[in-house]
């Protein structure tokens, strides 16, 4: 006789998305297990059975953020026909996606995470790794622009990569503090006015 297993009482993907939004809005330390259970619509035994510890759930939520949200902002960086168009595209995507919209918190979960928080275990390394990957994406695109002649060989790729990452990170912080899309667009346009090789 075949034994049919008990079906799950919740949608794991939907629960993980709900947890991501709570962590994104409140941070790791300020988020309680009650906050998570309420948002996910499950009880703590089900949460622990499905995701393990709070730290494990945060790690899964951050991975979900990287898989689902990050490409919406950073995808245009690689897709632009030129490096300049790519950088402008990712900043303009940030203009649209960083402000708070309904249930979606303002800012960037990866940028705002672990700043000033005493995070347990490997979480600080995971968050830091995500930010380093963003920096590497900018380096790759700008190095490619130097290789193709779009940018002068004298371009300080490291400096400019960190500059544009810093612009994005600043936009994320300001969005969390209530900056509008119009406010952020002004920042993006000013950053593009500084594009290297324009004789400024």
TrEMBL record:
Binding region for DNA: 32-51
Keyword Cell cycle appears in the UniProt entry: no
Keywords assigned by UniProt, alphabetized: DNA-binding, Transcription, Transcription regulation
Keyword Transcription recorded: yes
Single GO MF annotation: DNA binding
Source organism superkingdom: Bacteria
Occurrences of domain HTH tetR-type (ranges): 9-69
PROSITE patterns in alphabetical order: HTH_TETR_2
Entry-linked PANTHER family: HTH-TYPE TRANSCRIPTIONAL REGULATOR YJDC, TRANSCRIPTIONAL REGULATORY PROTEIN
Name of protein: TetR/AcrR family transcriptional regulator
Species, as recorded: Lichenifustis flavocetrariae
């Amino acid at each position: 006789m075949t034994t049919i297993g008990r079906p799950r009482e919740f949608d794991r993907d939907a629960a993980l998305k709900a947890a991501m939004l709570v962590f994104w809005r409140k941070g790791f330390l300020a988020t309680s297990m009650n906050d998570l259970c309420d948002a996910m619509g499950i009880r703590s035994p089900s949460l622990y059975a499905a995701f393990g510890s709070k730290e494990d759930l945060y790690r899964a939520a951050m991975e979900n953020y990287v898989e689902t949200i990050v490409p919406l902002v950073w995808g245009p960086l690689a897709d632009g026909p030129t490096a300049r168009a790519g950088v402008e595209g990712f900043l303009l995507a940030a203009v649209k996606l960083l402000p708070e919209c309904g249930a979606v918190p303002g800012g960037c979960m990866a940028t705002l995470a672990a700043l000033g928080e005493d995070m347990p275990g490997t979480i600080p390394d995971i968050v830091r790794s995500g930010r380093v990957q963003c920096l590497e994406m900018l380096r790759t695109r700008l190095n490619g622009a130097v290789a193709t002649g779009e940018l002068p060989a004298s371009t300080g790729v490291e400096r400019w990569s960190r500059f544009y990452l810093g612009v994005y990170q600043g936009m994320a912080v300001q969005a969390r503090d209530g900056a509008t899309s119009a406010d952020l667009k002004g920042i993006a346009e000013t950053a593009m006015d500084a594009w290297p090789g324009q004789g400024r």
